[in-house]
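Here comes a specimen:
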Amino acid sequence: MIKVLEKVKMEKMKPKKVIPYLAIILLVITGFIFFRYMDSWAGIQNDPPVSGDSKTTVEVRKAETLTILPTSTYDATLLAGEEGVVGAEVPGKVVQILFEEGEMVKKGTPLIVLDSQDLNDQLKATQAQLAAAQATLPKAEANIAISQRNYDNAKALYEAGAAAANDLSDAETALKVAQADLAALQANIGAAQSGVDRLQHSLAKLVIKAPAAGFVEDKNVAVGAYVAPGAPLAMVKNTSTIQAVIKIPQADAAKIKVGQKAKVRVSGDSQEYDGTVSYISAAASMASRTFMAKVEVPNKDNKLKAGIYANVDIVSGSEASVLVIPLKAVAGSEGSYYVFTDDNGVARRSAVTLGKTYDDQIEIKSGLTEGAAVICSNINVLQDGDLIVPAEQPTAPAEEQPLAATAGHPLAAVTELSLAAVTGQSLVAATEQGE
């Protein structure tokens, strides 16, 4: 009987000991779950939205009009303003070269010396002939004087009847012979003098000089070589003035005149060079139906180099207004360019037709109107209809969510579970009372 009572007593005591332990375990589990949910909710609050309501921050600029002077642009080849061929006028052997290729020289600077031995020998012989002819000149002139006097005497005697006609004829013949001899001698003297002059001139040509001021290039001669007259031995190029040679199509021929101002641009050089149209051909090329023209460009510092390609802009009309946007706002490829515009916070894609560029802006021929809000950043990630926020209007801070949980909120279940854990002692007490 006593054992049965003790057993019943122990069974009544077990719930009183077990329930407090269960309450403690429940509190620990509840706390763990609560903090896990809090961390998850905080992450949700901090992560950027990924739904269709996400917004992209962009730079927005207005499409505006730009006043320009219409220009026509042409491809050009730059040539030296003046070029001269270094060549021999007389044949000869090269004995000395007085220049280095690329050297700057003045007009008339000696460049090449030819051997003068043969010409000097010829000159000496011709001078000797001249001297000999000149030495006989006094005698021939004296013969003329004597023959003239004899003729005059014979004529006077003949007219007086004191001399025969044969005497007068002989005197006349002697005079004519003396005159012929003198004329022949004078001709010989003249020929010898011409030979001397020619040889002296040739000797002067043995020193080949620069035909113009400029840089000596295209050297094609060596010491010891025999050169013929007219063969090009080098080139002298004066680049203090540059000629930009362009081809004007028939449609532009009436718009371009001699004297018009032009701008010359070279790839890799940010500077623009001022020029003037100096020449337009009178007839078009039969092959290309274009007119050749030259633009003269001052080049005193020799920044422009002959032989390279360039672009020439020539003003071809009066002032005009064009619609422009930043160049960085344009996306797409040839034939399918487009831009995005800000339509009250929504990105709208618009196809555009492009014109010329003006520094960091580009002309829009169609697709936009003045004042359109053009998006200039993140255009490669935008889609038509995306929500956007202009960079100059930062996004307003998100409203703080109330800490109190509401039905359906992830915190609601955590809060209810926590409250149940906190009231665990009441639950134990109710159980004990029920028992």
